[in-house]
Structures are given as C-alpha cells and as structure tokens.
Recover the amino acids of this structure.
C-alpha cells in the first residue's frame, strides 16, 4: 500500500464520522430553521412546510428571546472579564518568585476545572441557600443581610457568574501561567535597569508580551460563556422571572420540551452568528489597539 | 534568600495564594463533609462545617435505595467506550494529517479546523432526529456518537506526530513493513504520551458531559450520573446530605483521575490552546 493511499484510509474513518455526525446535522439545522418542523412533522414529514425566514422573524417578536439574549449577554459581559481577571491574578501570584508550594497551589486552584459541572452546580444550590448556605453565613459576619441568591431575579444570574468563575478560572490560569513563564527574563532586567517599578513593568513588559495570549483566552472564554446551559438547567430552571433563561436554554426548551425543532434551529443559528460576530469583533478591537504581534 | 530580603512581599504573596486556595477548595471540602452528615444536619443554623457523627448512610441510601449504582455503571461504560473510540479515530487521522502525504491533505485539514467555529449545539437537534430514525435514542451508541472523532483530538495528535522523524518511517518502509504495521509498531509507541493525554481528556469530557446525554438519554436506566443527579436534585430539594453524597460519587472519580495523571492533562490543555 502506498503512503498516499494509506493517508486517505487512515484519515477516512474520522472524516466520515465528522461529516455524518457533524457537517450533515449542521446543514440540516440550517434547512430545518427554514421550516415549521414541529411535533406533527415529527410524526409524519408530510406535515412539514417550508416557511423561509418566518422562524427568525417570529423570534425577533418574542419577548422571551430578547430576555434570553439579554441574560446571555449579561453573563458574557460580566463573567468573561471577571473570570480572566481572576485567572490573571492567580497566574501572577503563582508566577511570583516569592511564592512557595507552587505545585500544590497550582493543583488546588485548578481542581474545580475537572469537576463535573452538573454536580458542582448541585453543591452550589446548597452553598447559596438563603438560610443555611455558607455564602450567606460568611456574609453575615460582614453584616450583610441574607440574599435569596437563586430566588431573587436580581441575584440569580450574578450567582451563576460566581459559580462559573469559581469553576473555570483555573483553566485560563494555567494557560496564562505558561505565557508568563515564556516571557524572556531579559525584558524584565531591561525594565529594571530603566528604573521601572512593578506597576510600570506590568504595564509595559508583562501586558504587551501576554497580549496575544490574552486575546486568544478572551475569545475562547467568550465562546464558552455564550454556551451557558447546565447551570440554569440544574440550579434555576430558567427562573426566577425568566432571568436565567439563556439562548441555549431557550433552544433546549423549544426543541426538546415543545418539539418546535424549526424554531429551535433558528435559535441555534442566532447563537452561532452572535458567537462568530463577537470573536471577530474582539480580534478587530485588539488589532485596532495596536497590540497584536 | 529572596524571602529573607523581602519578608513583607513574600508574606503577602503566600497569604493571597493560601486564601485563594482555601476559597477554591471550600465548596469541594464542604461537599464531602456534608455528605457524611445525618439527614437534616446541614440545614441547621449556624451551618455546621463538620458532621457531628460521620455516617455513610447517605451513600447507602443513594446507591441502594435510589439505585444510582446503575448510573455509575452507565457513566463508566460510556466514558471508557468514548475513550477507546476517540483514540481509534483521532490517532489514525492525526497521524495521517501529520505524516502521510496524500492529495488534498492540507486543504482537508484546514476545512476540519474550520469546523471549530461552529458550536456543537447547532448540530444537536438534527442529530437527535437522525439517531431517533436509527433507533439509537436511549442507547449507549447514541451517547457515544459525538465522541467518535473530534477536531481537537485530531489537532492534538497531529501536533505531536509532526515531530516523528520521516527517516524512521522510511527505514521501516525499506524494511518492507506495511503502513498498518508501521502505525502499530513504530508510530504508536512514540505517541504514547499524547495517547495518555487524549485518553484522560476524553474520559473526563465524556464523564462530565451534560447537554447531549440529557437530550439523548431520557430513560432513567441508561442515564449517566450527571443527568441522573440533576433529575434527583429536583426531587430532593431539601436533602442536602443525600445530594452531596451524589455529588461526591460523581466528582470524585474524575478528580482522582486528574490528580493521578495531572501532567498529561495539562499538556493537552496547553497544546490545545497555544497555537502551534
């Protein structure tokens, strides 16, 4: 067997699997989003009609869709910067020459990343309990009155942000730590010779050297945040007052609870377009700031 | 020595690290502690940190009475099969894209990478219909379909396989070895570290996965642990201790696996995110 034939044969199983179970469904989703695929079509495809862009137009007129979009954007806009700030802060601490027991701290801070999201979401339901939760208990030492984290429309999404930062910051921490370790020591020595203090060194040496990595981390983290689903599903079921219904939660509910697969597909594509647009915007903004190397 | 010169800064850095680690580990420690409490004990004020009289009763109740042992088995079997399938599909493809020259290779690889911009959830609705047609809803096979091949897995293996010297493969070919033989006895041994990495990442990913198993495994008997746990938590809103036992059973296996193979896991994370 020639290497060229072997190449195709070795790659074929994976390529076929990706084509059949990913590419075909994605194209089908696009087609489905232009049909009124519902529970009747599920019974017999004769009931399926082509409706053009109707699903998208209907979506724009649904208050719940806008609510879901707003909730998701809140989670992205508040959660992503907070999460990256914690990741960067802990990475800097771990990178410090003064830090002891680095291996232990690194593992400890990273451990929530490998835990099962659905399970720790259940743990946090109880940590966030209004009366018996540890968070309110700790806050009571500071004189803060009990907060109904998951029952108060104002606090449910911030509570999910809190869980999400705790669960995920370790991931970017490891990546940024690797980035910090890759910055050549001469740059710091040069800054020191120029008499730069810690603040100036951070701004003029660390941040520019880390910029490409920060961009990548922020794009990936944003994409991840747009896909918020399990936390609201497990912790709040979209409530209270629909304040934790996210775009993906809406897709799940439309598609698998009401079997409106046509409109659910439209929701999925709107999410896709938002994610793509945001990624491009982020890349553009950073380039505009003259950061990219 | 640095420590002696700057005692205050050193204290501040280490104190900050210790406090962050404490806050980070607290939810997991509380989970274990509450799982050992007597029913109702966690729901008292002030909330207790440690059980008065540690008991395994919650675990017995969970696994025997609620029959969660069945879901433990489901999770284990699905995660193991997902790992095996992912290795079979991604190792061969990753190696092919790195080392076997074939027409259109670079173009196809770029197309595959392009798939990364589409979120997996877009495919879920039609995929569910497809599997329903094939009679695979509520079966292990249905849960396994997304784990066959992954863009990330192929990329991971390819990056690592690029370092295999061509001379080594050529020498084997001159010796008359076939391509399959070369793959098994020359390539696979050199890929050992990345095999472990891909295996750990896949096992953890499959074990922790939520949305797809929730969609495709609606029948209680075939559900994985996270899905069953989410359903159970809706029925047992008040039973903190029982639910914490369920969370421990779900989280502990992957946490231990991570601790044992941490080095390999972190390697995958860095290869996956640092553009090569």
């Amino acid at each position: 067997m020639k290497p060229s034939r072997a190449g195709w044969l070795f790659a074929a199983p994976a390529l076929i699997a990706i084509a059949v179970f990913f590419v075909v469904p994605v194209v089908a989703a696009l087609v489905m989003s232009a049909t009124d695929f519902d529970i009747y079509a599920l019974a017999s495809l004769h009931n399926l009609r082509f409706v053009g862009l109707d699903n998208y137009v209907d979506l724009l007129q649904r208050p719940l869709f806008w609510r879901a979009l707003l909730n998701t954007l809140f989670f992205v806009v508040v959660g992503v910067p907070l999460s990256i700030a914690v990741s960067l802060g802990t990475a800097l601490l771990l990178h410090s020459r003064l830090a002891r027991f680095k291996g232990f701290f690194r593992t400890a801070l990273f451990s929530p990343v490998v835990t099962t999201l659905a399970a720790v979401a259940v743990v946090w339901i109880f940590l966030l309990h209004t009366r018996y939760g540890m968070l309110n208990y700790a806050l009571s030492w500071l004189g803060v009155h009990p907060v109904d984290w998951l029952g108060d429309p104002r606090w449910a999404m911030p509570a999910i942000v809190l869980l999400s930062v705790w669960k995920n910051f370790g991931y970017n921490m490891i990546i940024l730590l690797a980035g910090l370790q890759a910055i050549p020591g001469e740059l710091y020595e040069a800054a020191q010779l120029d008499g730069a203090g810690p603040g100036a060194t951070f701004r003029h040496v660390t941040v520019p050297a880390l910029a490409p990595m920060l961009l990548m981390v922020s794009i990936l983290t944003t994409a991840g945040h747009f896909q918020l689903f399990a936390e609201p599903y497990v912790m709040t079921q979209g409530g209270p007052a629909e304040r934790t219904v996210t775009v993906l939660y809406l897709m799940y509910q439309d598609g698998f609870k009401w079997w409106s697969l046509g409109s659910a597909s439209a929701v999925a594509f709107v999410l896709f377009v938002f994610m793509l647009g945001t990624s491009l915007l982020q890349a553009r903004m950073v380039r505009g700031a003259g950061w990219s190397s | 020595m640095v420590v002696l010169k700057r005692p205050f800064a050193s204290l501040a850095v280490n104190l900050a690290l210790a406090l962050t680690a404490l806050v980070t580990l607290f939810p997991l420690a509380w989970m274990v502690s509450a799982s050992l409490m007597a029913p109702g004990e966690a729901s008292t004020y002030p909330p207790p940190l440690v059980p008065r009289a540690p008991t395994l009763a919650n675990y017995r109740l969970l696994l025997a009475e609620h029959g969660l042992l069945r879901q433990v088995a489901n999770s284990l079997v699905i995660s193991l099969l997902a790992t095996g399938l992912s290795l079979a599909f991604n190792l061969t493809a990753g190696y092919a894209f790195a080392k076997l020259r074939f027409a259109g290779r670079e173009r196809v690889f770029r197309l595959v990478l392009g798939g990364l911009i589409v979120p997996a959830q877009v495919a879920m609705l039609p995929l569910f219909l497809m599997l329903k047609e094939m009679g695979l809803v509520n079966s292990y096979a249905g849960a396994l379909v997304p784990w066959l091949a992954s863009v990330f897995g192929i990329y991971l293996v390819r990056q690592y396989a690029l370092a295999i010297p061509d001379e080594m493969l050529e020498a084997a070919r001159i010796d008359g070895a076939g391509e399959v033989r070369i793959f098994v006895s020359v390539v696979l041994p050199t890929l050992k570290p990345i095999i472990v990495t891909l295996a750990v990442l896949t096992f953890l990913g499959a074990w922790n996965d939520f949305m797809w198993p929730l969609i495709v495994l609606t029948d209680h008997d075939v559900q994985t642990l996270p899905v069953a746990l989410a359903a159970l938590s809706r029925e047992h809103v008040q039973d903190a201790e029982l639910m914490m036992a369920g969370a421990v059973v779900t989280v502990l296996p992957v946490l231990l696996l991570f601790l044992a193979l941490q080095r390999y896991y972190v390697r995958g994370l860095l290869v996956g995110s640092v553009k090569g």
Summary: Chain B has one domain: 57-273. Residues 57-273 of chain B form a domain with the MetI-like fold fold (CATH 1.10.3720.10).
